[in-house]
Design a protein that fits this description.
116 residues, alpha+beta, four-stranded antiparallel sheet, 4 strands, 45% helix, 27% strand
């Protein structure tokens, strides 16, 4: 019985860890590629989907669902990004351009003060 409980506990711990990594996994070149491929096919990922996919690290810089959404792992505000930049750190993240509620392009690249 103790082995069974240990196995269940270990399994649940692994599932939780995988969930955390999956949530952060969208701030990547592969997610940028997914957005761009969907846009090429005119099957745009929506503004709401982008925010959900990028999770709590998504920084919404849009007006009427048009503008950009920036996401950097571990940064939930523009001030967080600026603080890293001011400390001289290289900041990489994703910049998704949204027009009329549709993601039209995305780039995974170095984020600069110009972006924020």
């Amino acid at each position: 019985m103790k082995k069974f409980i240990k196995i269940i506990s270990l399994t649940l711990a692994l599932v939780c860890i995988c969930g955390v990594f999956a949530a952060c996994g969208n701030i990547s070149q592969s997610y940028a590629d997914k957005v761009n491929k969907a846009a090429e096919k005119d099957e745009h990922i929506t503004y709401t989907e982008v925010l959900e996919d990028l999770g709590e690290d998504a920084i919404d810089i849009t007006l009427l669902k048009s503008g950009v959404i920036i996401a950097v792992k571990g940064c939930s505000t523009v001030d967080d990004i600026k603080a890293k930049l001011d400390d001289g750190k290289t900041v990489k993240g994703i910049v998704v351009t949204v027009v009329g509620g549709k993601a039209i392009s995305a780039e995974y690249r170095e984020i600069t003060n110009k972006d924020v």
